[in-house]
Design a protein that fits this description.
Strand content: under 5%
């Protein structure tokens, strides 16, 4: 026959096991959140510098084309049309070019067991 002392021991060990499992889950979640947070910060810093570079190159090209055509409106207008064309292509193919790759990257990162 099972003694109440054995049942209490079994109950206490089960409780300790569940507490340990919960602590492990919390630690893994904290690790993933800190990893994703640091990645987001890195991408934000890199993106900021990339944007500054992109703006400077755009201004440079605008002035070069303006000098070539001897008209500021034409030089910067050409740059604006190129960006409008890029925007239109990205808008039309936004799911294939932007949505799906980002979605796949997030899923890959979430289920990556490093």
């Amino acid at each position: 026959m099972i003694k109440t002392e054995e049942i209490n021991t079994l109950f206490q060990e089960s409780k300790d096991y569940l507490d340990t499992e919960l602590e492990i889950i919390k630690l893994e979640a904290t690790e993933k959140m800190s990893l994703y947070g640091s990645k987001m910060l890195i991408y934000l810093v890199l993106g900021s510098f990339g944007l500054l570079f992109f703006i400077c190159v755009s201004l440079f090209l605008g002035f070069i084309l303006s000098e070539y055509f001897s008209n500021f409106s034409t030089g910067f207008g050409i740059i604006a049309l190129v960006y409008l064309l890029i925007f239109a292509v990205l808008y039309v193919f936004r799911r294939q070019l932007i949505g799906k790759p980002i979605q796949n990257k997030i899923i890959k990162e979430l289920y990556n067991n490093e």
